[in-house]
Design a protein that fits this description.
Largest sheet: 3 strands, antiparallel
Number of domains: 1
Strand order of the largest sheet: 1-2-3
Shape: globular
Distance between the termini: 41 Å
Strand content: 5-15%
CATH architecture: Up-down Bundle
Helix content: 55-70%
CATH superfamily: Rhomboid-like
Number of helices: 9
Structural class: mainly alpha
Radius of gyration: 18 Å
Amino acid sequence: MLPLADHNPRRTTPVVNIILIVVNVLMFFWELQLQASRVLEPALMNVAFVPVRFWNAPGSLLPNVITMFVSMFLHGGWLHLGGNMLYLWTFGDNIEDRLGHGKYLFFYLSCGLLATLAHAVMNPGSDVPSIGASGAIAGVLGAYIVLFPKQRVTTLIPIFIFITVREIPAVFLLGFWIVMQLFFGAASMGGDLQRSGGVAYFAHIGGFVAGMILITLLGGRRPPPRPAYQNY
């Protein structure tokens, strides 16, 4: 299932969400330039997060933390980038609207960091570079299902060879998404990223859980304040 749009009005312009999307796109074009120069793979090994390097170099905390953050803005292809940015565009604006710009940036980056740590814990021996905004965006999805479970989302649903578009509650769409991550994550245990199709499922799970917790700790469950005045 693929979300196309939610019907959840916001009060503010999602400045941070837009900036995050722009940065992700710009970083992807940087990757395309590296690919054209045939230096993409060695560059990714230097700037992307690698679990085995994280555990085997405990004295290199700062470089490892830097790679965690850089990895959040790298993607493995057009579909990877497009899917992530669609989810971020659809659901991120309302989380930013509820938290405010500064808190939302902290929330997003924290979810991405915790998602990466979850991936490192579950795949300590992996030497495959981990890239993508999926962990941070999973945090956004976790927050959305906490705040707006009944909000209806226009969703593209493939049914065998047919495709239909329906409005469904966010809890069904996002609930289905996390159940699939849990299923494939469990199926991939004992393997590596190559055998699991290159998808870091435990980063998704870790980010989703982090988002559910952080949205509460940051006060996102409180109703937004009423405007100081109204225009007539």
